[in-house]
Amino acid sequence: MSSPDETIQLDIAIVGGGSAGMTLATKLEGVSATIFEPKTPIERDCSWGLWAQAPQLKELSPAIRGSWNQWRLIDHAGEIIHHSHEYRYASLSAAKYLQHCETLLKSPEMIVRAPVENMLGEGGGGRFSANGQSYNAKTIYDSRPPKSEPRALCQHFIGWEIKLTSPIENPHIATLMDFRVDQSRGLHFIYVLPYSDRHLLVESTMISTQLEDKEWYRTAIKRWLSEHGLEVESQLSEEYGVIPMAKVHPHNSDVNNIGAAGGAVRLSSGYAFSTIQAQMTALAASIAAGKRTVTKPFSKRLIFLDNVFNCALNDQTDHGVSLFMATAKALNAEQFSRFMLGRAGLAEWVRVILAMPKWPFIKSALKQLLGHD
Question: What is the pLDDT of residues 22-37, one digit of tens each?
């Protein structure tokens, strides 16, 4: 056992044991790595959503809480339903995924249950302390949640996992966005995943630059349930989250940042899990080849287009509902899945752009090209 006065030398330090950190740790071969994460999987539990094909669904099966090959977006004018033969929209338990990752580790000693402090990065590696012990790592991969600019665009929500007193209709359809709610404070929608006809995840989600008081989201959920004649038998859990939809700043730019800190959140949608999986797979291959470089998760073109979309959303809040409904209407289920995953081709982007209100997008594109805030 090392003395606190000694500095423990590490090859690879993975800071943060969430989706990015644990996924990377399970994919490493032929190297020594240590993960620093103060929380247990149960303490980190939340719901992660993604579109997945059959091979990935099989790989993620220990953590899947539900999956649907039909999903819908709804506004006051009607609904758009997608029925996919290739993709399913899946909900994962973060706790079960992280627990599964831990079972794949070569040794439980790979995890240090303590936060990292006093990090001094240099050349991708550096020194830090954890639980009073000093460490020096040749390479550091930092997945701690990044910081956002004040009043930057973000997606923020509260979700309830509930049991109902009576069954709902159409439990085989996931509701990704129901816009028939209060739109006075920004783009607002209700997100509903039916795990069964009486077991739901219901989230009140806002896309705006201003966080709301938590009771505001809870009231929106209660109102939606009441308007749909749904009575809660029991509330199983509550989840609160804030997802950046603008440029973020990592804790330390002198080390290698991965996951959300490494730009893996899709700016126009807030989805990240699939991108993180791809980023960690590529990084593990890079490490195996002796390079240890983190790949950029999105192309410059996609980042530009997402920033144009978000700029239009931020500047023209009254167009928000029509932007998302137009995207869903312009694409079929397979195209929509690829678009949300950041894998859309040029033809699919053309379909989306042609379906959008033109002037807000032209103004937003010009602002991005001219570098105006």
Answer: 999 999 999 999 999 9
